[in-house]
Amino acid sequence: MKTNIFLAALPTYDNRLTLTQKISLCEAKRSPLVRVQWTHTNDLHITIGYIPAVQVADLRTIAVGMSNVSQASPFMANIEEIKLYGTAIVLRLEPYQQLLTIHKKMNLKLMEVTQSQYQFQVKGRFDPHLTIGRLRNINALNPLHKHQFLNMITEQFKGYSFLIQQAALLRRASEHSTPAYQSIQLYPLRC
Prior knowledge:
The protein contains four helices and eight strands, in the order βαββαββαβαββ. It is an alpha+beta fold. Strands 1-3-6-5-4-7 form a six-stranded antiparallel barrel. The termini are far apart. α1 packs antiparallel against α4. It has helices at about 15-30, 60-65, 95-115, 145-155, and strands at about 1-10, 35-40, 45-55, 75-85, 90-95, 130-135, 160-170, 180-190. It is globular.
């Protein structure tokens, strides 16, 4: 059996609650023309790496082998931009270089512990992001509706900073459960 897993940086619990409050304000101001499925509080994470088609039997080896992520120091993440990627509503984050360094270091460690059987999937430039929701009717929206919707989200999130003290190896949960991700392994960030 195969599964997809993610290496993620996690906002602190208090910061996830604040992000959820901001999402709730967006929902309250949302036009009825826009249908959105917002991300659950427990699922808010910064995607650092995506590893497709992992054998379930290999999860423990990967989880233990990635313990080096804990050698990174806690840091502040800053929301720099709000974008749509397909149907996903994402917050693009800084410090880009620090997130890229974790990505590269952990990809090398992943390849080492799995003897190059697995590596992070890369499509173009590395893009650390936090998905806050998905549009359910994107094809029914005209460019003006999309622009107004993104402006409303920008009002809530632009310039917000939050603390990252932990990373995690995540796996998508079953289709009918909420939250949608399960932690395989947590990694506290410390020097």
